Input
Amino acid sequence: MQRVRVKICGITRIADMQAAARLGADAIGLVFYPPSPRVVSIEQAAAICDATPAFVSRVGLFVNPTYEQVCEVLEQVPLDILQFHGDEPAVFCRRFGRSYMKALRMKDDTDVLALAGQYDDACGLLLDSHVPGVPGGTGVTFNWQRIPASLPQPLILAGGLDADNVAEAIGIARPWAVDVSGGVEQVDADGRRHPGIKSEAAMAAFIEGVNRV
Output
């Protein structure tokens, strides 16, 4: 069986990136979407990327950006992969000469195979939950049984994953990789979550859950 890869998204601190890498994460995600509570500045992102060790991919997440906004980031931040999480057409995603992932939000009427055909040169297809008005990081799962048995691109599974459900999700969806953000963040005893601040214990439990499958 192949090893399922892990991406820890919504990284905002060098220390959290280092912990994720040490625990075995294959990729980190940096959010360049201003409304997100996990957004990073170009300066923050550059510092995190410069400190990232070899063989940990640096992924930049964008939601309906302009061409100029992506170029501004790429001029200063050494990203390995672009992740487009909005309504970007394939022709836009291809403009930057970088590998890219396309996120699809799983609405009731989403035709995954048809959309996969539109983004046939994507290095991965990320399937996430659909919550109206929220492009990602919802903490909500979707019905994994809806995922087609065979996709032309590697499948990255996202949406409400945590240490408690990731093994079940992998067993059903058989993804190439899993993507987690809110499910590994610090949570106070009263249940208050700290978006963008990762819990090393939660990341360790999540990656252990992946590796057990």
About this structure: The beta strands are 5-8, 27-31, 57-62, 81-84, 99-106, 124-129, 155-157, 177-180, 185-187, 193-198. The longest strand covers residues 99-106. The mean pLDDT is 94.
